[in-house]
Design brief:
81 residues; mainly alpha; Non-ribosomal Peptide Synthetase Peptidyl Carrier Protein, Chain A; 6 helices
Length: 81
Amino acid sequence: MDRKQIEDELIGIIQNYAEVDRTAILNGAPLDQLVDSMAFLEIIFDAEDKFGISVEDEDVKSLKTFEDVVRGIESLIAAKA
C-alpha cells in the first residue's frame, strides 16, 4: 500500500467521526482540534483494523497530526513486511 492509499483511507476514517474538510486534515491541523479524544481513539482502532497493524498505547500519545499518523502507519506496515 502506497502513501496516497494510506492517506485516502485514513481521511475516510477521520471523516466518519467528524465533518471535517480534507484540506483541513492535510494542512497539518492538530488532530485534537479536528476530533475529540474518544473519536481519536476510535480512529486509531479503525486504522489498526484497516491496515492490519497494532499501535502501542505509548505511541498513541505522540500522534498529534495527520502526518504523524500516516508516518506511524507506514512504519508499522513496513515492520510487518
